[in-house]
Amino acid sequence: MAVPMGSGPTVRRILLGSQLRRLREGVGISREDAGYHIRASESKIIRLELGRVGFKYRDVEDLLTLYGLTETAEREQVLALAREANQRGWWQPYSDVIPHWFQSYIDLEESASLIRGYELQFIPGLLQTEGYARAVVSGRPGVRKDVIDARVDVRMNRQKLLARPDAPRLWMVIDEAVLRRPIGGRRIAQAQINHLAELIDQPRLTVQVLPFNVGSHAADGGAFSILRFPAPDLADIVYLERLTGAVYLDKHEEVHEYMLVMDQLAVSSSTPDKTADVLRTIAATL
Question: What is the pTM of this model?
Fold first, then answer.
């Protein structure tokens, strides 16, 4: 059970649930019987094994005993993961100002080895300047200044993962409309494009621009992100954000469809070596 560096509770729950499922299936115990053993329903076992709910330490102990895992070293490894799965992520002090459905994404982002995405509204959050981020967050009507400040803090803290020794590879396709939209006004928008131009030489970052002249393209459903993880027990995940929520897709056929779209976008976009020229040209016209 290799746990990626920087992993928070969401990833650890997924890894723990996967381990419990393998142990249960290995001894031929049904989900219904496992649920009965810990005074829970079959649906509760399903949610536990998918990592979608928190774990009670005593329940994990009881399930390990039921599954016959009594060898001290291996049992302790699973129990240690159960303890860690209940720890707080660095973002949880901000849980009152960031949506609950986005907190899981922050955890997954921290654990990813590859993040690919398409953006058509904003510069990706991991690449935003503080001024641009503040303009984006302030776009929602009726948001208090302290809430805006806290959300900007979260966005800036997220960017620290790019400085880690095991930083994920980030490969983004940005629609030309994003660069021409003067978020925060001309000065902030130009500063953001210049900041992006300074970042693109980083070896683990690839940025492409999808030009207007492409016309209709494969991503007609809107923006999305695809996350891949170093741990073999973690399937690729597609993240789709909406105004009041988000969807996480992990079925192979769904993820594969988005991978195909991502590849098509990359082919239709400017090549990475031309991105700096595109950015400079657009910045000069704002």
Answer: 0.86
